[in-house]
Please model this.
Amino acid sequence: MCGITGYIGYRDAYPIVINGLKRLEYRGYDSAGLMLFNNNQIALTKTKGKVLDLEGIVDQSPSGKEGKIGIGHTRWATHGVPNDVNSHPHFSQSGELVIVHNGIIENYDTLKKELTSRGYTFKSDTDTEVLINLIEEVKKQEGCKLGKAVQLALTQVIGAYAIAVFDKSKPNEIIVAKLGSPIAIGIGEGLKEFFVASDASPFIEYTKDAIYLEDEELAIIKLGKAVGVRKIYDDSIVDANIQELQLSLEQIEKGGYDHFMLKEIYEQPKAITDTYRGRMLADEGIIKMAGIDDNLGKFMRADRIIVVACGTSWHAALVGEYLFEDLSRIPVEVEYASEFRYRNPIITTNDVVIAISQSGETADTLAAIKLAKSKGAFVFGICNVVGSSIARETHAGAYTHAGPEIGVASTKAFTTQITILSLIALKLAQSKGTLSNSAFHMYLQKMQLIPKKVEKLLRIDDTVKHIASVYKEASNCLYLGRGFNFPVALEGALKLKEISYIHAEGYPAAEMKHGPIALIDENMPVFVIATNKGHYEKVVSNIQEIKSRNGKIIAIVTEGDTTVKEIADHVIEIPETEEALTPLLTTIPLQLLSYHIAVMLEKNVDQPRNLAKSVTVE
Ligand code: AGP
Model:
């Protein structure tokens, strides 16, 4: 997720663009850049680092601040590590066209090869530079204006984009287009100025009149003219809906949600989609992940896979253990990185180590990686931050494409980590033949349905809110699950602990009789995951044991469940899917539950006491 912004009008563009980028930094902050046009010259400045670093560089060349038209970008890298060259904006080869882009071009590799064969060269590793040169090539071949060239070029693109494009030869317009990533157009009084941005936060103080482009729409923004919006694929004219914005600046940054955590919970359908996008072709029955494909032999020959992580990432690692052992039949050990690094573990060159970290900066996980590497193990990283320390330290890896996770409590990181682990387990199962072709295809089809099922689940928020209101005063809670959902029980307990400060423990449901059942009484809410294919009958008897001791049961069940409904005090229904994929669904109500309880208890949801988003020290 990146932030794009732009301005064209009668004011100096620089202050509007640079301040707009500051407002958009929550969307991505590993590098930033801007372009201004003045006296027939393009001044383009970009750098790895924060918007403040960019500002410092521009301040050193005051001439670089002139101009009434400009576009800017703050980056959350997906292709190409964060560095100056990969930062946006990007020039086309001729230097005539400039682009900023938020999204992922899936078929950029194919397009890049075609453009290379036509004599194009590339300075960066980004998919965005491919896109601006595709636009340039189309413009050249068709002899058309920029708007038409952008439209035709986008019909060749597979992926997601929100772009702003500028043509030096036509400096009185900006072209924007959208598919899968947001774009808002601010309309100034008398059409004397226009703003473009990923959300309205950069221009809300200048105008409250805005157009939000819909998917597959392109807009030509020209001074003095109404914004012309067209459909990319059929060129039909769109009667653009001009809205009067009601949101405050703070609400805009949080996408209209009260907290970043809630926004990130609701971003999960898109985050999961973006994570498997370009890696899983369900209809063709293909999983392609460079980090795995290039090292498949190491995984196939591995005596075992050791997964090291902390916190929520450790819970994802535990789901990974069930996935790898059940699907790929590879022995797995899951280790707390903080323990692994000090317990003098036995590691051999036949081990594959997977390190999972949202931030890519967790000190314990980084130390565990270095230890594993020193013993000759191959180390694969799963991170959410491109170019982070862990991403750079591991031999290979795969990025979750969750976008920045601002809330301290990890939510979309967890589900996107599980998505990556599922893809790896399925890829290895296919390669080892431990999964039939039909079963492999079935899993891909089921994975492709998960985002919609998460969306459906998010609509039960009111039910979860009611349950939260009933149990928000509890002093202790238990979370129970079996199999794939035992780690989800642990994760649900962690969510509640870290943002509501209520003590909670996760347990394998069968462990109750080995001690925890002594805790049960009418004051003990027990959250039980009882999906219909997850040792269901056993979980039902665990529920009955708890009920017979006056425990309160809140059960997460598969849609249509009738048995548990008869016994539990509350049920939350999740859509049906393969048991191995249920963690992607069962975790959603538990995230919402902890969120609502914390809000009702008036806790600082996004920045809970004593916690940091990234634990970069021991
Ligand atoms: C999760 O909600 C917590 N914020 C914390 O446990 C976190 O998962 C842990 O610190 C690991 O962070 P990482 O994924 O960035 O390595």
Q: What stands out?
A: Residues 310-313, 357-359, 362, 365, 408-410, 498, 614-615 surround 2-deoxy-2-amino glucitol-6-phosphate (CB under 6 Å). The chain has three domains: 3-249, 254-457, 460-609.
